[in-house]
Amino acid sequence: MTTERRCPDCGVDMAKTTPVTTFQGDSLRLRTGKSRGGVLGKLGFEEEVQPFAYVCPECGLTRFYVDPEE
After folding, report:
1. Which domain holds residue 26?
2. Which pick of 3, 11, 22, 25 has the fewest CB atoms within 10 Å?
């Protein structure tokens, strides 16, 4: 996955942030809707991926991206 992102409004390179966490310090995770493998999948747990935020230094636009191969 490419790590270079450009702001669609300003046309400048967006800066990758540190991993996004909640107020309580938990890392942000997104459910993929796909069942996890093994016992957890049989119990109804879904796969999760960690998104990364990119922020435009000009306008502050923030976007989240995940690695599609993850």
Report:
1. 15-65
2. 25
